[in-house]
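Marked as duplicate of an earlier ticket. Keeping the data here for the record.
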Amino acid sequence: MKAAHAVIVGLVFLIVAVPAPSFGSRVAVEVVPDLGNTLILIPFRESASGGTLTVKKYLEARKGENYSILIRNHLPERIGVVIAVDGRNIITGRKSFLAGSEMMYIIGPYEQTRLEGWRTSNDTVNRFYFTSSADSYSVRTFSDSSAMGVIAVAVFREKNRYTALSPERRAAGRAAVPSAPRSESKQEEKDEAGTGFGNEQYSPVVPVEFEPERYAVEKVLVKYAWREELCRKGILHCRPEEKNRMWDKEDYAPYPPGY
């Protein structure tokens, strides 16, 4: 078993984890700003290769806003998730290739967890926030812009896994556990969106044993960008605001023809 390759959200995981609804997909990935509204993911492309489903989506980034990555496990077994932001593993900060040998978070059957920042110790993270690529953690710390503006989640199933009861069957046998409520820099013209290294926050974890299968069963890639970039690429259908002929006219009176 590979104890060194697994990290589970400890106290925080136990507080915020609640049963997730069971759908066809293995996981659901959301990007949630601190204001509470889930940012809309725009489907782009799906493909399958070697037993791995890859789902690509776009997302509009809002400059200076803190965000979290919310992951729901729809499987009746625990899973390991390798998560990379701007190409860096969010636990170790190392360049990620979404491999099963990397450090990962563990999510229990039918549960969910919310990941809020770059892990700096067993007890702390530094918050994710949208910023310019020049101010991003990846560029400032590692001079790495090779995967700028991408939130990537690779899902690994466990070897010798066991199957848990569905949320409905568990609820029939016992009562549900209640869940608890729960720097911006200058942007150069045409600069890409990136993720910064924000304020420190308490977020404890504990190591667990988890031996992943060799290949990921699913990858979710979210490309986030400023609204202007999404409009330019046609991902968002942005029409220019129509001008008001009385309000927006600012020219002086023209000379008559031939004057």
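See parent ticket for discussion. Confidence is low (pLDDT under 50) at residues 1-24, 172-189.
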